[in-house]
Amino acid sequence: MNTSEQAAVWSARTSAELYGIDEWSNGYFGISPEGEVVVHAPTAGGDAGVSLMEIVDGLQQRGLQMPVLLRVENILDSRISILNDSFAQAIEASGYQGHYRGAFPIKVNQQSHVIAEIARFGERYNHGLEAGSKAELMIALATLTNRDSLIICNGYKDAEFISLGLQARKLGFKCFFVLETLSELQSVIERSRALNVEPLIGVRLKLSTKVEGHWSEDSGDRSLFGLNTNELVSVIDTLRDANLLHCFQLLHFHLGSQIPNIRSIRAGVLEACRYYIELVGEGAPLGYLDLGGGLAIDYDGTCSTNGHSRNYSVQEYCIDVVEAIQESLDHHHIPHPTIVTESGRATVAHTSVLLFNILDVTHFEPTVMPTSLPEGCHEMIANLWHTLSVIRVANLQESYNDVIYYRDKIRDLFHAGDISLRHRVLGENIYLAALQKIAALLPHMKRIPAELESLPQ
Ligand SMILES: *Cc1c(COP(=O)(O)O)cnc(C)c1O
To answer: Is a pLDDT exceeding 60 seen at residue 4?
Structure first.
């Protein structure tokens, strides 16, 4: 096929559609009319579109070689703004009485540039950090400048981790210990007495809400993390005995990452609210409800409940969360808590691109085509040969069906040992030649059948 025929079938638009760029890119990436991938970085002065090829050329002129991990900090800024603004709008629209505080989970991207940018862009929103280990707590303390931002400590905590968090309290950080086991509580009480600092305590709940998706083991009764109802009651009794019940201010749960269905999120929030109400009844002040991560990315662009997608927008997520908490607590006249989320992938997934050289290209083209069939070919190869010779605009679909049929027959014959490797190669080549001929004639069809649209061009 010559290039003008190819161009008639294929276009920059067709590429964008094939890769679903408009669906998954959230507007951050697109394809220019020249066929280059363009990154749209939202800036104060509007949306600046820059071709990735231009960036690659610039990098190469400066002597840098591929591969390069390109990070777009304006997109990170945009993601943090969208999350915080969407919660602010949902809170405003529903008359919710509490606030929103985000906490980026450091484990999702520990690169110091990324964490520093999150701290910088998040400053105006009091966006904090979630630390799952002592090392991550150190990162949080070294990076956060805003003392109103939260530091949420999840994960297993030894005495040193706890001491560090208590020192952070002395420095004025809002540093929460989220208890994952009962033994941590004893350490927290001991260390806080020794250092004479009151801790901020949270509890990770083990909810029975199960979610679909890749991380479903993080949810449900058998999940590895969090306290069960027995242990929860024991936390309250222990804290009351230690005169520290007023320190119990946060309730946390994490259903798993990449939750595709908004209904699971709502169900999780409603279940957590049941605990919230009971714990307030028991005398815990609470005031913070932390939903963990889970805000999903539509990687496949289907906007569905597939594992790699999600059936909701950030705005819908915020509205559903705010409304679910409000409805549950209003029944019991309980003040609305500060809503915390630890959204990781939703903050960073769009912000970096790996640029690399194409090392080789696989061609699906016939290599050698004989002018006539050799002697002694199997009937199926002869049929395929004949089909190739009669392909016309008028019979494209029928030819396509026949070509596929004979190709499969020829493969079966080879598997059964009835034709040789060389005849199989001949068959494959005739098949590819036939596909090319069909593809070349497609532009002459009034309406291209769906099945033929995606033919290798
Ligand atoms: C991994 C993790 C997150 C981040 O989840 P995302 O789905 O990426 O937002 C948040 N909180 C906890 C406790 C986690 O383990």
So the answer is: no
Report CA dihedral (301, 34, 4, 427) to the nearest 10 degrees.
-40
Distance from C-alpha of 303 to C-alpha of 208, rounded to nearest angstrom: 26
**Ligand 1 centroid from CA 107, angstroms:** 8
- Which residue has the least CA distance to atom 14 on ligand 1? 293
Tell me the one-letter amino acid at 433: A
Distance, in Å, from the CA atom of 284 to the CA atom of 63, rounded to the nearest integer, reads 60
CA distance 148 to 329: 25
Q: What is the pLDDT of residue 7?
A: 46
CA of 362 to the centre of ligand 1 (A): 39
Neighbours of 419 (CB within 10 A): 20
β partners of residue 204 = 252
Pocket test for ligand 1, best of 83, 104, 108, 133 (most atoms within 8 A of CB): 108
Q: Is 157 in the pocket of ligand 1 (CB under 6 A)?
A: no
Residue nearest to atom 10 of ligand 1 (CA): 293
- Measured from the CB, is residue 154 less than 6 Å from ligand 1? yes
Write out pLDDT tens, residues 206-239.
998 887 766 666 666 656 678 999 999 999 999 9
Q: pLDDT averaged over the chain?
A: 92
User: What type of residue sits at position 315?
Assistant: Q
Judged against a pLDDT cut of 60, whether residue 55 lies above it is answered with yes
> Residue 34 and residue 9: Cα distance in Å, rounded?
15
